[in-house]
Write a structure and sequence with these properties.
With 602 residues, the protein is of the alpha/beta class. The protein is 35% helix and 15% strand. Helix 1 crosses helix 2, helix 3 crosses helix 17 and helix 15 packs parallel to helix 22.
Length: 602
C-alpha cells in the first residue's frame, strides 16, 4: 500500500484542536517509521542493511526527502553521521544490525556522546522471537548464550528506547530525535524488537500517533535578566577578560555573535580543541587553541586573565591541562559560564555566575546590555593577543619554510594554509597529524574545522570527510590523517566514488604509528614502524585519483589538482619521521605529575 502523511507540519502554526493523526491510513510498521523520520525533517539515513533493518532500508527506496546511503562498513557510517551532526546541528540516522553497529560502529557513537553531537541510531537485537531463550543466531536479546544489545548501547548512548509494538516504535523514533537534540546533544538509540516491525500502524493505533512537530519543540531563546546583570557586573570590574569558546558555539551556530561579543567587551578569544573553527583564527581577537596542545601565547592569555567567559565548554582536562593552577585557578580568576545544559555549567570548576541558554541568544543579549557599561582598561584585547604571540611564539621555526625532504609537517601545513580555499571544511584524524594541525593550521571560522575531540579515535578524518561533504556538497572538504588512521576508514573512498562525492585526503606519512613511537625508547621504536605502502596507488585502485609527493612544489601541484577532481583525491605526503608532537606541546603540559610518561604522552 502506498502511504502518505496527512500534511507537512514543519514551521506550521495552528490551534491545538487542529492536530490531526500522523497517518491518513494504515501502513506497514516499517513504512510508518520511515514516514515519521520524513515528517521530522530527517534528511540522511546512512548505514548497512542487516537483519530486521532490511525492511526499513527497503521503505526508503524512492523517497526523495531522505537520502539513504549504504556504506562498506558501519564505522564509516557512524563517523559520517557524526560530522554531519556537528556541521548542521541536525541528527543523521545511523541504521544497521545490532551486532554490527556495536561491533564496528561504536567509535562514532562514543565520539558523538563525548563530543555532544546529535545522532539517532536505529537498530534491532535479532531477538529470535519465540526462540530467543535458546541463544538464537546473532541474537542481542540478553538471554543466555546471547549478547545484550540494549545494555551495550546504554553504556555509550545518551538514551536508549526499546520498542516492542509497531505504534510504540514510531513514537519512540520521534522521541529519539527529541532527546538527541535537546539540552546537551548526543546519540540516542531505538532498539526494535522483532514484534514491533510486524503489522501496521495508522490513525487508530495506540499509542496515538501525531506529527513530530508536536514533540520537537525548540528551546526558548530567552535569557534570564538577573544572570545577565551579574555577568555585566563581572565584566565591568574586569581588566583582563578572556573568552573561552567551545563546541557549543558550533552547535548554536553562534559564530557571528561570538565575534561581535569579543569586539563589544574587548576580550581575546581562545578556543578549546573541540571549539577550534568556531572563531576565525586570523582575527586580531583570536588567541588560537589553548590547553595541552595549544601555543604558549594562548595559554599565557588564559593564565593572565582575571575573568574567563566559558561559552559552550565543560572545561575538560585537556583544556585545563588537568586543572593546572598556573593556567586556570578559580582562587585568583572569576569564571562566567554559558551553556544550554545545567549539568555542564560548573561541571569541572566552580564558577561565579552561570547563564543557562543558547550561546547565540546569550551573547547577543550581553552585547546589547553591555553598551551601557563604561569600562576603561589599560590594554586592548588585540594588543594583548599581539603581545602574547610576540613574547611566546615568535620567531616561527625555520621548518615552516623548509624545502627539505622528507617534508616537515610545518611546511606541509603552511602549503595547505596557502592553497586550500577559505570556505573549505577541514577534518583531522587522531594522532600526531591532529596535534600538528591544531597547532599550526589557522581556521577561517564558521565551524568548518572538525577533529575527534571527544573519543579521539583514529580513523575519524576520512569517514567524517564523507559526512561533511554530504552536509555541504558545494564546499571543498579536506581530510588530514596519518598513515596509521587512513587504512582504518579508507573504504569511505569507495562510497565517495559510488555516490560521486569528491573530497581531498592528505596523508602525513612518516612510516610509523608516530604518537606511540615518539614516547617509546629508541631501541624499541621499530615496533611501531610500518611497511611502506603506496596509499595513492591503493586509492587509484578504488577508482579515485592519488599521487605520492615528496617536495613542497609537488604538494602544491597535487593539492591544486585535487580541488578540481570529480572523485576523491588522495595525496600521500612523505613526512620526516623525526618530527614529533612532543616538541610542540605546551610548556605547561610538559610539567611532570604522578606519572611523567603519562603527562608526556597525553
Amino acid at each position: 500500500m502506498t502511504a502518505t502523511i496527512t500534511r507537512k507540519f514543519a514551521n506550521e502554526t495552528r490551534a491545538p484542536q487542529m492536530i490531526t493523526p500522523l497517518f491518513a491510513g494504515e501502513v506497514s510498521a516499517s513504512e510508518g517509521i520511515i514516514l515519521a523520520l520524513e515528517d521530522a525533517g530527517i534528511e540522511l539515513v546512512i548505514g548497512m542493511g542487516a537483519n530486521f533493518t532490511m525492511p526499513l532500508f527497503e521503505a526508503l527506496i524512492g523517497r526523495k526527502a531522505i537520502r539513504s546511503i549504504q556504506v562498506r562498513q558501519e564505522l564509516v557510517a557512524a563517523l559520517a553521521a557524526n560530522a554531519y551532526g556537528r556541521l548542521t546541528s541536525r541528527p543523521a540516522v545511523f541504521m544497521g544490525g545490532g551486532g554490527f553497529i556495536l561491533g564496528t560502529g561504536t567509535q562514532g557513537i562514543i565520539e558523538s556522546l563525548l563530543g555532544s553531537t546529535p545522532l539517532v541510531i536505529l537498530t534491532e537485537k535479532f531477538d529470535g522471537g519465540r526462540m530467543s531463550h535458546h541463544g538464537y543466531y546473532q541474537s542481542g536479546s540478553g538471554e543466555y548464550a546471547a549478547y545484550d544489545a540494549v545494555g551495550a548501547l546504554r553504556a555509550i548512548c545518551k538514551r536508549v528506547f526499546v520498542a516492542q509494538h509497531p505504534a510504540q516504535a514510531v513514537q519512540m523514533v520521534q522521541l529519539a530525535i527529541k532527546h538527541a537534540t535537546t539540552g546537551d546533544p548526543g546519540p540516542v538509540a531505538v532498539v526494535f524488537d522483532s514484534s514491533c516491525l510486524e503489522g501496521t500502524v495508522g490513525p487508530q493505533s495506540f499509542p496515538r500517533l501525531y506529527p513530530s512537530s508536536g514533540y520537537l519543540k525548540s528551546a526558548p531563546r530567552g535569557v534570564d535578566g538577573s544572570s545577565v546583570s551579574r555577568a555585566l557586573s563581572l565584566l565591568s570590574s574586569s581588566q583582563r577578560p578572556v573568552i573561552v569558546a567551545g563546541h557549543g558555539v558550533r552547535l548554536s551556530k553562534a559564530y557571528h555573535e561570538l565575534q561581535m561579543f569579543a569586539s563589544a567587551i574587548d576580550a581575546p578569544v581562545v578556543t578549546t580543541q573541540g571549539g577550534k573553527g568556531v572563531m576565525d583564527e586570523h582575527s586580531p581577537y583570536s588567541g588560537g587553541v589553548f590547553g595541552s596542545f595549544g601555543p604558549d601565547s594562548a595559554n599565557a592569555l588564559v593564565s593572565e586573565a582575571d575573568l574567563l567567559i566559558a561559552v559552550g565548554t565543560r572545561l575538560g582536562a585537556l583544556d585545563t591541562i588537568e586543572q593546572t593552577p598556573a593556567l586556570i585557578d578559580p582562587q585568583r580568576q572569576g569564571i562566567l559560564q554559558i551553556d544550554t545544559e545545567p549539568l555542564n555549567a560548573a561541571f569541572t570548576l566552580p564558577t561565579d555566575t552561570v547563564i543557562i541558554g543558547d550561546a547565540a541568544a546569550v551573547l547577543a543579549r550581553i552585547c546589547t546590555d553591555y553598551a551601557a557599561v563604561k569600562v576603561s582598561r589599560a590594554e586592548s584585547a588585540t594588543a594583548r593577543v599581539a603581545r602574547a604571540v610576540r613574547e611566546h611564539d615568535l620567531p616561527l621555526p625555520s621548518a615552516h619554510t623548509s624545502d627539505a625532504t622528507p617534508l616537515r609537517p610545518e611546511r606541509v601545513i603552511s602549503i595547505l594554509q596557502d592553497v586550500f580555499p577559505r570556505d573549505g571544511i577541514v577534518l583531522t584524524d587522531a594522532g600526531e597529524n591532529r596535534i600538528f594541525m591544531l597547532r599550526w593550521f589557522k581556521s577561517h571560522g564558521g565551524g568548518a574545522y572538525l577533529m575527534p575531540h571527544g573519543g579521539g579515535g583514529m580513523g575519524y578524518a576520512v569517514g567524517a570527510a564523507f559526512g561533511a561533504k554530504l552536509a555541504h556538497p558545494d564546499r571543498p572538504v579536506m581530510a588530514v590523517c596519518g598513515d596509521g588512521g587512513f587504512p582504518m576508514t579508507m573504504n569511505a573512498l569507495m562510497n565517495g566514488v559510488q555516490e560521486r562525492i569528491p573530497f581531498v585526503v592528505v596523508i602525513f606519512n612518516n612510516g610509523s604509528l608516530g604518537w606511540a613511537m615518539h614516547v617509546t625508547p629508541k631501541e624499541k621504536q621499530h615496533h611501531y614502524a610500518f611497511v611502506d605502502f603506496d596509499h595513492a596507488a591503493i586509492a587509484r585502485a578504488m577508482g579515485c585519483r592519488g599521487v605520492r609527493v615528496e617536495s613542497p612544489d609537488a604538494l602544491k601541484s597535487a593539492l591544486l589538482e585535487a580541488l578540481s577532481s570529480t572523485v576523491p583525491f588522495v595525496i600521500d605526503a612523505r613526512i620526516a619521521p623525526e618530527a614529533t608532537y612532543v616538541d610542540v606541546m605546551a610548556k605547561l603540559a610538559t610539567v611532570p605529575r604522578e606519572n611523567p610518561w603519562r603527562a608526556r604522552a597525553e
